[in-house]
Amino acid sequence: MNRKKDAALEAYGEYFTNRTADDIRREYDEQRDEWRPCGAPRMRRCDQNDLPRLTEFYRRVADASQYSRWAFGLHPTEAMIADYVAQGAAFVEETDGGIAAALAVTPQQPPEYREVSWRCALRDDEVAVVHLLAVDPRLQGRGLATALMREVLAQAKVDGKRAVRLDALATNLPAHRLYEALGFEKRGVFSWYAANTGQADFYLYEYLL
């Protein structure tokens, strides 16, 4: 990692450490323009009108996936995507009328996360959890996932969360690099069953706000 990027990441970490939720809320719109690649779209919450396009987006991503080992219909499923939209937990970035990137953020951690040795013991509702982060295969490598995750961290701080957590398949090396570059800490490895992978190892990541 070069010095310029080191300095940027250090400044980014200080941004969250030294500011309250009110500070973040006041500065959010102004600051996030500096985080994003030139011309990158902004995150917005999905509604029911987005469901057909969002479902098709995840189908395309799954068809092209390698490291994540997604298989549409197993993971993700249409029902899973529809549930995130119904919860108000699905978000997208759009460009030229199409979905460039998407993810879901739920406002509390699932029961299985209680087994993990997190750095900070928190109530389930003090944690935001990221799911289904994906970028259009044609737009990968442009910093969209990084920008989207930074918006998630900022919004979680505004919402009063104390940590953002997630899990990633142990073989998903690009995802590990993304999360670790953002400052997430790997807190454990668990063997879980997923319909698309069978029994597999997952890394658990945490970012304290």
What does this entry look like structurally?
This protein is of the alpha+beta class and 209 residues long. The protein has one domain (3-208): 3-Layer(aba) Sandwich (Aminopeptidase), CATH 3.40.630. It is built from six helices and seven strands; from the N terminus they run ααβααβββαβαββ. It has helices at 3-17, 21-35, 51-64, 78-87, 144-158, 173-182, and strands at residues 43-45, 90-95, 98-106, 127-135, 163-169, 185-194, 198-208. Strands 1-2-3-4-5-7-6 form a seven-stranded mixed sheet, sandwiched between helices. Strand 2 (90-95) and strand 3 form a beta hairpin. Helix 2 packs antiparallel against helix 5 (144-158). It starts with a helix and ends with a strand. Mean pLDDT is 87; it is low at 28-39.
Name a few traits of the molecule.
single chain; 209 residues; alpha+beta; Aminopeptidase; seven-stranded mixed sheet; 7 strands; globular
Layout of helices and strands, plus pairs?
Elements: H1 3-17, H2 21-35, E1 43-45, H3 51-64, H4 78-87, E2 90-95, E3 98-106, E4 127-135, H5 144-158, E5 163-169, H6 173-182, E6 185-194, E7 198-208
Parallel strand pairs: 4-5
Antiparallel strand pairs: 1-2, 2-3, 3-4, 5-7, 6-7
Globally, the shape reads globular
Instruction: Please indicate the count of domains.
Output: 1
The averaged pLDDT comes out at 87
| Spatial strand arrangement across the major sheet | 1-2-3-4-5-7-6
Concise synopsis of the structure shown:
The protein is α+β, with helices and mostly antiparallel strands.
